[in-house]
């Protein structure tokens, strides 16, 4: 008999199970970066459930079991994960990683994702990006970088991704199986946007390398990009 699994929460079930006090992943000792990442990756989507079940070549089964049985399954079943369960995962990451401060310090979510996906589970990179026609590079998530935009007061994710790709001269080499996007943030002192509206769907047509696009003037297939 294989490990128990619970499907991600959808629609009314998500509201019923996740809304209210003592719901979500309990924070403790600078764990917010990991709590938010885990909640985003697993609460309402199954796109990365291979992380919980697949026997990847480099996979650490102990870490995989903690992630599945102590964090994701309780979150989907009851809507609540104790801080002690996340600390158990953090202790394992500290043992496996090159960094001794996963149990007490605040980290960048990308550092956590790279460690668990690449070094502990051995998953292939999710994104292939190309900048300015240079050699393509692979990564697990994309962080939005952009200058202050006076015309964007309450942006949505679609606007932020498009402008960030444009300012960095980036293109997606292929359609990703999963597109993890980290919102712009600048620590405790300064927030570029007080709110960001989630885009429930992301149109990546303009972000894809060599994809046919329509001309904004005549509607035919475009031959030039402004």
UniProtKB/TrEMBL annotation:
Swiss-Prot/TrEMBL keywords: Cytoplasm, Hydrolase
Keyword Cytoplasm listed: yes
InterPro entries (alphabetical): Papain-like_cys_pep_sf, USP_CS
rRNA processing as UniProt keyword: no
GO molecular function annotations of the record: cysteine-type deubiquitinase activity
PANTHER family named in the record: 40S RIBOSOMAL PROTEIN S3A
Protein name per Swiss-Prot or TrEMBL: CYLD hydrolase
